[in-house]
Structure formats: C-alpha cells, structure tokens
Amino acid sequence: MKKKKWMYALSLTVMASGLIAGVQCNAATKQDKLPLKEIQTFAEVYGQVKANYYENTEDSKLVENAMKGMVSGLDPHSEYLTKEDFQGLKELTSGKFGGLGMEITKENNAISVISPIEDTPAARAGIKPGDLIIKIDGVSTKDMSTMEASKKMRGKPGTHVVLTVLSKGRLAPVNLDLQRAIIHVRSVKSKLMAPHIGYIRVSTFSEETLADFIKQLQSLIKENHNQPLKGLIFDLRNDGGGLLNAAVGVTGAFIPSGAVVVSTKGRNKIQQTVLKASPEFYRNPGESSSAPDLLQGLPLEIKQVPIVVLINSGTASASEIVTGALQDYRRAVVVGTQSFGKASVQTVIPLQNEAGLKLTVALYYTPKDRSIQARGIVPDIEVKSVEDELFDLHEADFDNHLSAPGAQRARTIGKENKTISKLESIDPEAYQKKRKELQDKFRKQASFGYIPDPKTDIQLKKALDVVQNHALWQKSLGAYVKNEAKIKKAEKKLKRQ
Predict the structure, then answer these.
(1) In the predicted structure, residue 21 carries a pLDDT above the cut 60
(2) Any catalytic annotation for residue 317?
(3) Is 388 a catalytic residue?
(4) Which of 8, 81, 309, 470 would bridge 85 by S-S if both were Cys, CB 3.0 to 4.6 A apart?
C-alpha cells in the first residue's frame, strides 16, 4: 500500500537557511555527469506518450508529472512543488493563514488526518487523527495530492467548506460544514498540577513558542507562591514539531548553556551542523544578535528541577529533538509510548520556474549521536492508553520511509493492548459507543484552555506519580536503554526473516 506523507509542521529546516543556501550552492557548482542513456530512454517514453496516448497531453503536464514522480520516489517527505503548491507552502509556514487547522497525509487513496491543531475549526468540529477526508466540497480526494487538498481547504476567513469525513468504525461518511478562520497556533499552556508540581503542554513549535514557554514557566513559579518548583511535567503528546530553533531554545531552558542539543548529518559538509543551547541557535530569523537572551530571565533552579516528558506516536520531529536531548542528558524521565520517528531534515529550494523542491538533505542525531529515524524515541516508562491503540501511526508505517543507518523496521517494546480491537470484533455496538466517547473527549481537548486530568488520563497520572517520587524518578532515568535493546533485538529478528 502506497502512502504519501506530507507533514507541514514536521519540516525542521524552515529555520535552516544555511542548508538551503548550501543546497543551492552545491547544485550550481558540483553537478554529476548526466546519465545520457537514461535521458534518451526518458525522451523515448515521452515521445511515445505524445504520439500514441488516447488524448492530447500538455508538454508541461507530462514534464511536471515526471518531476513529481522522480522526487516522490525518494522518501515520504521529499516533493516537487508546483508554483501554486510552493506559494501555498509559504503561506502555511508564515504562521498565519485562512483555513481549517489540521495536518494531513495521503492514505488509501484519500486524505487522512494526522492531527487537528488545537482551537481551530477542524478540532472544534471533532475531526481526529486517522479520519479520512474522502470529499472536499463534493469533489473526491482519490486523485488529490495533499497539497491540492490543503489548497481547497484554505481560503478567505468566514467562508465555508464541506468535508465528507469517514471515521474508523463508521459504516457511512458524514458531511461537516466548516467555516474557515485565521489559524493562529497558540502552542503553550500550563497549570500547577499539584503543590510545587508544574504542568506545561506545547502543541507545536513556532516563532512565539520560546517566549510563551518562558512566560508560562514564570507564571507557574508565581502560582507556586514564588517558590521553586519541585517537579515539572512536560507534555509533548501529539506535538507534530515545527521550527527547529524553537525546539533548541526550549531544550536550552533545562540543560547547561552551550551544550549540544542536536546535530545533523548529510552527504555534504554544509549539511553537517551542530546546534547548541546558545542564543545564536535559538533566536528567530532576522532577530538582532543584540536582542535579549530570553533564557537569561529563568531562575537557576530550573536547570535542576526533575522533569517528566509525556510522548506518544503523535510526538514528532522538533518535539522528538527536545525529548531526545532531555533523555540523553538524563534531565527527564520519558513516559508514554514510542514517538513518531521523523528524524529527517528537509529544505525547500526555490526553482527558476517559481516552483519549489522540498528535499530531504540530512538526518538529525541526539546529543549521544542516536538516530531515531523510523525508530522514534523509546520511553523510559511505557504507558499505553486507549487512544494510542486507536490512533497509532509511525514513520515506519509509510512505504519508502528512510531507515536509521543499519536499522530495520521495528517499533515494539512491550505487550500490545488490543482491548479496543477485540471489542470491535466481539461487540461492534460497544465499539461504536467507545469510539463516540473518544470523539467527544477529543472535541473537548481541542479547546485551547483544556488541561488534562490525571484522574482520567493514565499517562498523566503516571507522570505525576513519577515526578512526585524523587527516588522513582531517579531510578527511571536512562531506563530507555533497556527498552531500546528490545527494539534492536526485534530489528535483528526482522533482518533474519
């Protein structure tokens, strides 16, 4: 089954202007010898299509399709962007656009929802991960690319678009009439979860995230009567990533200044980078080097406060960078389920015809030189929720995905919880009821002001238990090493098969 993945929020190189410049320079100065024989064959195929296809075809369309095929065959994240697609991507990465607010991919000849963005029309309508958008304004999405679908769903705020949505377990699709809105991604929220225990959730990494994150930390300390926090729960579940510099800055709040946060390795020297917890690596583009260092306003005890990071399969890219660094430096115990596993770096290259090329140019590595590509971050303590079983999706699930060097596909570290799957086959009516409960829960969680309750959230409850018990927290640090050994064993088994 072919699955073409497009994850706007997971592109790490929105900030990596050096990589973009490097790729352009490399393309201009070092060209490989052209494969003349293969080009002749291409010309032959082109001529046969022009001469014998049952209807006339436009030259530009044939060439465009050839370029799309060449790039899409590389990996799930590389893509040739038409002029319109390129413009649409620039609008999306501007941080403000008219639309519905969700991340999408191509799956089963339909548009599949990766996750809705909190406090957006899509989230408020109850759209959830795994839903299939089979029609947009009555037009089938079977032959639509993700970019085409995104273009149809974007538009002037206040206008309407009708989505035909099929949810897992439903026999028939439903039509949802959604009103477009300006999508502002408010990414950080916090609460004093217990005496001296703070909770912070980051839903995406944007230009405002670091500043908002610092404000929320300061707010928690104030709420704690200006007393130092004794523990912090950092919720990165369903955080699809975002800007690399924001991830570096947030990580820098908890590790020594100047420490390595992440490195990238590609084929060319320009793609070999090391990003550290220093202002030059986490300031926003265009920001003056003399601008105040946001991290300087944090109290020193933040560098020592025990942290628990919550992750699941929706934790991807930039959020995996944060988790991996905190795990490597033994600053945090990671609780939840294995993360998505996107550790590839993309850059967007403008082309002469005003189109663009989104190209994977490197893999990123944690401070201990771990590659988590198609593996994901392995939690120190695995806690699997019902939602994790229903909405489980990983980089390794996609055809043509890149593997970590020397790795095979493997992402099993414990016993699978198949309660819901069994329920679907044994009692379809009960399954539908449970599915509806989860839909309603997800709709409630879509509100920006929503904070999960440890009484109903088993992963949060476990995180709270761990961070409140310093001995347990200390004992759990670095436990992922044993869990990763299980994965490596599973990889070797797969390799022998």
Answers:
(1) no
(2) yes
(3) no
(4) 81
